Amino acid sequence: MMLKLEEIIDAAEGREIKRAIAVKMVLLGFKTKDICDLLEVSDAFVSKWKIIYENEGAGGLRLHYKGGPKFLTDAQRREICFHLRDKPHYSIEELRDLIERRYGIVYQSKQSYYDLLKEAGLSWHRAQAINPKKKEDLVLLKQEEIKKNWRSIRLR
Q1: CA-to-CA separations, 134 to 22, 58, 70, in angstroms, rounded
Q2: pLDDT of residue 5
Q3: Nearest-CA neighbor of 46 among 21, 63, 11, 29?
Q4: What span, in angstroms and rounded, lies between the C-alpha atoms of 5 and 59?
Q5: How far is residue 115 from each of residues 17, 81, 93, measured CA to CA in Å?
Q6: How many helices (H) and strands (E) would you count in the chain?
Q7: CB neighbours of 67 closer than 8 A, spacing ≥ 6?
Q8: d(C-alpha 119, C-alpha 122), whole Å
């Protein structure tokens, strides 16, 4: 079955929709300048996708990103998420060590670990119980300064 422009226009992916609408408008006889103004794209964008459509058909307008294979299976991801919920605070390093120990996998990007924490309902912002950069004496001084300034404002 051949893919039709209308099928792409009805799709959820915005970039594909923009491509298909630009091509459809060209085919309907709209001027490139009008298409560019309406869709907020360049004339090179319109020309590029028109040529791709002519050479490859509507399927050429689709996104071609397929992604890489997953390192962890869905069952392994669920198991990790379940394990993460047992502990209130998890650092990226602890998570990396857990995955490496259990499955022998180390992600190149920290983003994969952030995604796992998010999937488990945690935030990497919450990963530490205390702020290691916090200096208690400076915090107390600042609090006293704020109280003093607040009193002087209230007395006015």
Answers
A1: 54, 57, 38
A2: 67
A3: 21
A4: 9
A5: 28, 11, 14
A6: 8, 0
A7: none
A8: 7
**CB-based contacts of 53, cutoff 8 Å, min separation 6:** 23, 60, 61
Question: What radius of gyration do the chain's Cα atoms show?
Answer: 27
Other residues' Cβ atoms within 10 Å of the Cβ of residue 109: 8
Q: What is d(CA 61, CA 16) in angstroms, rounded to the nearest whole number?
A: 6
Dihedral angle, C-alpha 128, 134, 140, 143, nearest 10 °: -80
Structure-block tokens of residue 151: 């009193």
CA 81 centroid distance within chain: 19
* Global pTM value: 0.42
pLDDT at 131: 62
Angle at 77 between CA 74 and CA 81, to 5 degrees: 140
CB-based contact 41:33 (threshold 8 Å): no
Higher pLDDT, 70 or 7: 70
**Helix or strand run (H / E) with residue 95:** helix 92-103
- DSSP assignment string, 102-127: HH----SSHHHHHHHHHHTT--GGGS
